[in-house]
Write a structure and sequence with these properties.
single chain; mainly alpha; 2 domains; 4 helices; elongated
Amino acid sequence: MKRPREVVHERRARLLERAQSEREDLARELGTWSGPLRTVERGIAVYRGIRRSLPVLGFGAGVGMAALAFVRPEGIGGWIRNATEIWRLFTERKARRAERAVAQAAEPAAPVAAAPVVAE
């Protein structure tokens, strides 16, 4: 008869072999996804980088527009209208998002239906 410790060691060895086999199967199955996932991760990194540097990009765009306005002062009226329209769109979008967040936070939890009462 085997001692309990030997039974545990044998079971542990079987579990380790099984875990290794499952890891290999998973790696084989996910191997085909490594390229597309890498592309998605790069896209997310670019998005985060742009989002993080948005104030710098805005400043750069402002400097560039100021330089163009200095070179071609007759065409600045249309630029100002377009810039204010873009600014209004961004601020409205931000305001709507904030309003939705407040509305979701204020929504009461869905009521739980009461169990029907059966008369005996």
